[in-house]
Specification:
By secondary structure, the protein is mainly α. The chain is built from 32 helices and nine strands.
Length: 762
C-alpha cells in the first residue's frame, strides 16, 4: 500500500480503554533516534514521528459489519496493534477488526500487546476464561477468506508485570512498526536517555532550590528509614517473642501432673488462648500475630466459637498499630473472612475480604504478596458462591486462578507444589460456581482438580484430596452415576475421618452427601440414619441456625416423605425453611427453594390452600432474583402446575406446565429431562381436560425421556407413571392403567435432590 494515512490501527475492548489511551499517547509522542530517521526498512523510510495512530472507537456501526469509516481506516493503516486481554478475546468487534485487516493481505503486520490473561489459555477448558488472544489472532486466514484451523504465533509484546514491562513492550511495538531491530532500538534509547539525564544534571543550578530539595529528600529518607527501623525491630521482636511463647506453650510446668500423657491439640490451643492476652498485654503486634495463628488453628478444628474472638482481636490490634502494617492487617482480615464464611456470616465475610484485597492491591510492587492476594480473592469467590452469587464468584475465582497460575510458573519446585494445591482448591470452588449454570461444563473443571491432587498426594491422605474426591462424587451424583458417586464419597469420608477425627463439619457434610446417594439408590432407612448422624453433628458444632443444618433438614424431609410420613416431612421442611429465613432475611435462592419444597409437601398432604401460598411466594421470590425466565422459575411453575392438577384446575395447570417447559427448553434444551418433567404435567392437564390422545402422546414421550436419562430424578419418572395410570383409567383402558401403576415402580426416591455448595469447597 502506498502512503498509508495511519501508522497503525489500535484494536481494543472498551474495558481496556486506559491501555488504549496510554499506548496511543506513547506512540504518537515517540521520536525515533535521529541516527535512524530516513533509513529505509521493509516498512518504508523511518519517519520523524509515528503519527497519526488511529484509535477512534466512537465510529463503530450499529449493524453487524464494521462500518464504512472503520473499514476505510483499516485499509489506510500500515499496521495493526491489538491490545490483548480476556475482554478483547471475547470482543466481537476486536475479532472482526483483525479479520478485516488480515483480508487486506497484511497478516504479517499485526502486532499484539498483552496486558492481561494468558495466550492460548483456551487450550485448557479449566482456564479458557483467561484467554487473551481473540480467535482471529490465534488462527491463520484461509484461502477462502475465513479463519482456518492452522494455528499462528502473533508477534507479541508483553506489558504484564514480570514480563517485558511497559517500556520494553512499547519499544518492541515501535520496532515492529518501523521495521528495525528491537535490541538496536533499545540500546539507542538507553544511550539517548543517559545523555538526557547528563544534560539535566549538568544544567541544574545550585543554591536554595537544590538545598531545599536536598533537605526535603533527606527528611523524607530519614522518616522512611526510621519507619523501616521501627518495623524491622518490631518484626524481630515478634519473631523472638513468638518463638518463646510457643516453646513455653509446649512445656509442662509440673511433670508429675502430666503422668506421661501427651496434650491434645485442643488442650494446647486452649492453653495458648488463655495465656496470650495476659502474657503479652504490652506487645500488641506480637499478640495480633499469635491471636491470628491460634484463631486459624481453632478454625481448622471446626471450633468456630473459640476462633472468633481471637481473629477479631487480631484485626483490631493490627488496625491500631503505628506505624501501620497493611500487609499484615490484610492477612488477618482474610483469615477473619474465612471464619465468617464458615459461620455463614456472608455480608461480614465479604466486607473483610474486600478490605483485605484493597489493602493488598494498594501495596507497592516490592511489598505486595501475590500469594496472599490470591488467597483473599479465593476466599471472596468461595463466600460469593456459598451466598448464591455464582456469577460474581466466577469472576473472583478467575482472578485468583490467574494469579496462582503465574506464581506456579515462576516458583521453584517446593513452592510450586504448595501453589498447585491452592490452585486445585480454586478449581474445585470454580467448578461449583459453574455447575449452577452448566453441570457438563463443571465436571471437567472438577476432574482437573482431582487429577492435580492425585499428582500431588498419591495415596496419602490430605484434606484437599478428600475435598476433591467428595466434590467429584457430588457432581457424578447430579449426573446420575450413583454407583461411582457412592464409591468416591465413601473414600472421601474415610479420608476425612483419618484427618479430622469423627466430629468435624467436614465429616458431617460428607455424611450428608453420602445419605443423598443412599436415598437415590433406594436405601431410605440407611439415608435417614445417615442424615440423622450428620444433623446431630452439625447442631453440636455449628449451632441450630446455620445453612448446613437447614440443608440437612431439607433433604431429610424428602426421605421422611418418601417413607410415607407426609405430615412429619412437612414439619421438617418448615424447620428447614425457618432456619434459611433467619440466615438469609432477604430474597435468597435457598429460601425460595425451601418455600417450593414446603408447598409440594403440603400439596401431597392435601392442604392445598397453604401449599398455594408457599408456592406463589417462592415463585415471586425467584422472579425477583432471576427475572422473567430462568430454570429456577421453571421449577416453581412446575410445582404450581402439580398443585393445579391436584385441585383439578386443568386450564391453569396446562398454562403453568407449558410456561415451565418453554423456560426449560430455552435455558437447558428441548430434550432435557427437566423439560420432559414439565411436559408430563402438561400431559396430565390435557388428560383432565378429556383430551386423551394428546395427553397420551405427551405423557409417553416424557416418560420415555425420564426412563432413559441417567440423570433424571426418580421423582419425575414416578410422577409421569402415575399420570399415565390416571389417564388410562379415565380413558376406560384399565389394562393399560395396570401397566403403569405406581405400586409397580421399584424406584424408592420420589423427589428432587438439591445440589449443595458444600463445606468442602472452601
Amino acid at each position: 500500500m502506498d502512503s498509508p494515512r495511519y501508522r497503525a490501527f489500535l484494536s481494543y475492548s472498551h474495558r481496556d480503554a486506559k491501555w488504549g489511551a496510554w499506548l496511543h499517547k506513547s506512540l504518537e509522542s515517540y521520536r525515533p533516534p535521529k541516527q535512524i530517521v530516513g533509513t529505509v526498512t521493509p516498512r518504508g523510510a523511518v519517519p520523524k514521528r509515528l503519527t497519526p495512530i488511529f484509535r477512534d472507537r466512537e465510529e463503530l456501526a450499529s449493524a453487524t459489519d464494521l462500518g464504512t469509516l472503520l473499514n476505510e481506516a483499516l485499509r489506510q493503516s500500515a499496521c495493526q496493534i491489538v491490545i490483548c486481554s480476556p475482554s478483547s478475546a471475547r470482543s466481537k468487534w476486536v475479532n472482526e477488526e483483525i479479520l478485516a485487516f488480515k483480508r487486506l493481505g497484511r497478516e504479517d503486520r499485526i502486532f499484539a500487546l498483552i496486558v492481561g490473561g494468558e495466550p492460548y489459555a483456551s487450550n485448557d477448558p479449566a482456564h479458557a476464561e483467561e484467554e487473551c488472544f481473540p480467535p482471529a489472532l490465534r488462527y491463520k486466514l484461509g484461502s477462502d477468506g475465513n479463519l482456518s484451523t492452522e494455528r499462528t504465533e502473533p508477534i507479541a509484546a508483553d506489558a504484564r508485570p514480570g514480563k517485558d514491562g511497559r517500556t520494553n513492550a512499547k519499544l518492541k511495538l515501535i520496532a515492529g512498526l518501523l521495521g528495525v531491530g528491537f535490541d538496536g532500538l533499545r540500546q539507542r534509547e538507553q544511550r539517548r536517555r543517559q545523555r538526557q539525564l547528563f544534560m539535566i544534571a549538568s544544567g541544574a543550578i545550585t543554591g536554595m532550590v537544590i538545598t531545599s530539595g536536598l533537605a526535603a529528600a533527606a527528611l523524607i529518607a530519614r522518616a522512611q528509614a526510621q519507619r523501616q527501623t521501627v518495623i524491622a525491630k518490631r518484626e524481630a521482636e515478634t519473631a523472638k517473642q513468638t518463638t518463646r511463647f510457643l516453646v513455653d506453650l509446649f512445656k509442662i510446668s509440673d511433670p508429675s501432673e502430666a503422668r506421661g500423657n501427651s496434650l491434645s491439640a485442643r488442650e494446647m490451643l486452649d492453653r495458648g488462648a488463655a495465656s496470650v492476652e495476659a502474657q503479652l498485654a504490652k506487645q500488641p503486634e506480637i499478640q495480633a500475630t499469635l491471636m491470628d495463628t491460634l484463631g486459624k488453628a481453632y478454625t481448622g478444628l471446626g471450633l468456630y466459637a473459640q476462633a472468633k474472638p481471637l481473629l477479631e482481636s487480631s484485626v483490631a490490634k493490627r488496625e491500631a498499630l503505628n506505624p501501620a502494617e497493611p500487609a499484615q492487617l490484610a492477612l488477618s482480615l482474610s483469615d477473619l473472612g474465612d471464619l465468617q464464611t464458615w459461620r455463614a456470616e456472608y455480608p461480614d465475610a465479604e466486607r473483610a475480604y474486600r478490605r483485605a484485597i484493597a489493602l493488598q492491591k494498594g501495596l507497592s510492587v516490592d511489598q505486595r504478596d501475590d500469594e496472599a492476594l490470591a488467597k483473599s480473592l479465593f476466599g471472596l469467590g468461595d463466600e460469593l458462591a456459598k451466598s448464591g452469587r455464582s456469577t460474581d464468584a466466577e469472576a473472583a475465582l478467575g482472578q485468583a486462578l490467574a494469579l496462582q497460575t503465574r506464581l506456579i510458573r515462576d516458583a521453584d519446585a517446593d513452592v510450586a507444589r504448595t501453589l498447585k494445591a491452592d490452585s486445585a482448591k480454586t478449581l474445585q470452588t470454580l467448578a461449583w460456581a459453574i455447575q449452577e449454570r452448566d453441570l457438563n461444563a463443571a465436571i471437567p473443571v472438577m476432574q482437573s482438580a482431582v487429577a492435580m491432587h492425585r499428582t500431588l498426594w498419591g495415596t496419602e491422605p490430605h484434606p484437599d484430596y478428600a475435598d476433591a474426591l467428595n466434590d467429584m462424587g457430588l457432581l457424578l451424583r447430579y449426573k446420575g452415576d450413583y454407583e461411582e458417586s457412592e464409591q468416591l464419597l465413601r473414600e472421601s469420608l474415610a479420608m476425612y475421618r483419618r484427618l479430622l477425627g469423627d466430629k468435624h463439619p467436614e465429616v458431617a457434610m460428607s455424611l450428608h452427601n453420602l445419605a443423598q446417594v443412599l436415598e437415590l439408590e433406594g436405601d431410605l432407612n440407611g439415608a435417614n440414619s445417615t442424615f440423622q448422624q450428620a444433623l446431630a453433628m452439625q447442631r453440636e458444632l455449628l449451632g441450630n441456625v446455620h445453612p448446613d443444618v437447614a440443608l440437612t433438614l431439607y433433604n431429610l424431609a424428602w426421605v421422611i416423605h418418601d417413607q410415607g410420613d407426609t405430615h412429619r416431612a412437612a414439619d421438617t421442611a418448615r424447620e428447614s425453611l425457618a432456619i434459611y429465613r433467619k440466615v438469609f432475611p432477604d430474597d435468597n435462592t435457598d429460601v425460595a427453594r425451601g418455600m417450593t419444597q414446603l408447598g409440594y409437601m403440603l400439596t401431597q398432604a392435601g392442604d392445598y390452600s397453604s401449599a398455594a401460598t408457599y408456592l406463589q411466594e417462592g415463585l415471586g421470590m425467584r422472579r425477583r432474583l432471576f427475572g422473567s425466565s430462568h430454570p429456577e422459575i421453571a421449577s416453581s411453575l412446575l410445582y404450581v402446575a402439580i398443585l393445579q392438577v391436584a385441585t383439578h384446575d386443568y386450564p391453569a395447570a396446562l398454562a403453568s406446565a407449558g410456561a415451565s417447559a418453554d423456560m426449560y427448553t430455552a435455558g437447558l434444551s428441548a430434550s432435557n429431562w427437566k423439560t420432559a418433567a414439565a411436559q408430563a404435567v402438561s400431559g396430565a392437564a390435557l388428560a383432565g381436560l378429556g383430551k386423551y390422545p394428546q395427553a397420551e402422546e405427551r405423557l409417553l414421550s416424557a416418560y420415555t425421556v425420564l426412563s432413559n436419562d441417567g440423570g433424571a430424578l426418580p421423582m419425575y419418572r414416578k410422577l409421569a407413571r402415575h399420570y399415565l395410570e390416571v389417564l388410562y383409567r379415565s380413558w376406560g383402558r384399565p389394562s393399560d392403567a395396570m401397566r403403569y401403576a405406581v405400586a409397580a415402580d421399584s424406584s424408592a426416591s420420589t423427589r428432587v435432590v438439591v445440589p449443595a455448595v458444600v463445606g468442602s469447597t472452601r
